């Protein structure tokens, strides 16, 4: 537990309040357009990572399709994220998901659009994310379990239950692994809620993979 909290203090110290954010969505889109593109083999990891981060936001803040589509409109990304069906198909591209047919291929522009929408929503809920991470730090320092705080307990239950419902290996994946994954993603979300969150997330998409077991 302590190992996944190491970066949380730096993440909080580097945050700006929403009113102080200087980068516009247009600048952020331009930055991502010039960022390192993923290789074809990395796209599967990207699909998985993006869907899991959206699951983190959904489990913590109750964010659903409508909030994501609203963010797309505010960021002028509605050409990529047009409606609930297109968003559902993008999330279904996650290779870990239970499939009901052929999967949609996620292209780089769609991935960039989801990155911007995720970071926009994370900034909107930054105070909630901060509070959850602060609770996690306090409980860890006292050698207490995250479930002892209602905010974290509700988040973990929602994340784990939804993962088990949606993912092919959900029933076989251990609850301890899912709880660890949920807390790791929660701390990552704190980084993504900052003014440079889109950069942090894009680098994470390129550099990381998410082995499920």
Q: Tell me roughly what share of residues is in helical segments.
A: 55-70%
Give the N-terminus to C-terminus distance in angstroms. 17 Å
Q: How many structural units, i.e. domains? A: 1
**Mean model confidence by pLDDT:** 83
How is the main sheet built?
none
**What's the order of the H and E elements?**
HHHHHHHHHH
Going by helix content, strand content and strand pairing, the class is mainly alpha
Low-confidence stretches: 13-23, 209-213
Percent of residues in beta strands: under 5%
Overall spatial form: globular
Number of strands: 0
Radius of gyration: 16 Å
How many helices? 10
Q: Which descriptors would you attach to this protein?
A:
213 residues; mainly alpha; 10 helices; 63% helix; disordered C terminus
Structural features, described:
The protein is mainly alpha-helical and 213 residues long. The chain has one domain. The chain is 63% helix and 0% strand. It contains ten helices and no strands. The longest helix has 22 residues. It is globular and about 45 Å long. It starts with 7 loop residues before the first helix and ends in a 6-residue tail after the last helix. This is DUF3038 domain-containing protein. Pfam families: DUF3038 (PF11237). InterPro entries: DUF3038.
């Amino acid at each position: 537990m302590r190992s996944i909290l190491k970066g949380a203090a730096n993440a909080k110290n580097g945050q700006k309040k929403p009113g102080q954010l200087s980068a516009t969505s247009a600048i952020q889109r331009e930055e991502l357009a010039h960022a390192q593109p993923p290789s074809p083999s990395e796209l599967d990891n990207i699909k998985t990572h993006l869907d899991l981060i959206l699951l983190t936001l959904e489990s913590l803040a109750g964010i659903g399709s409508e909030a994501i589509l609203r963010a797309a409109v505010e960021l002028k990304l509605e050409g990529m994220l047009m409606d609930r069906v297109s968003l559902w198909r993008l999330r279904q591209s996650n290779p870990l998901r239970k499939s009901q047919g052929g999967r949609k291929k996620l292209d780089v522009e769609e991935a960039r659009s989801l990155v911007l929408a995720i970071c926009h929503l994370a900034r909107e809920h930054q105070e909630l994310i901060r509070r959850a991470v602060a609770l996690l730090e306090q409980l860890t320092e006292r050698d207490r379990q995250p479930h002892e705080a209602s905010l974290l307990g509700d988040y973990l239950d929602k994340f784990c239950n939804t993962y088990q419902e949606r993912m092919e290996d959900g029933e076989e994946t251990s609850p301890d692994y899912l709880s660890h994954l949920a807390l790791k993603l929660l701390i990552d979300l704190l980084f993504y809620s900052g003014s440079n969150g889109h950069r942090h997330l894009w680098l994470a998409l390129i550099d990381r993979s998410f082995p499920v077991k």
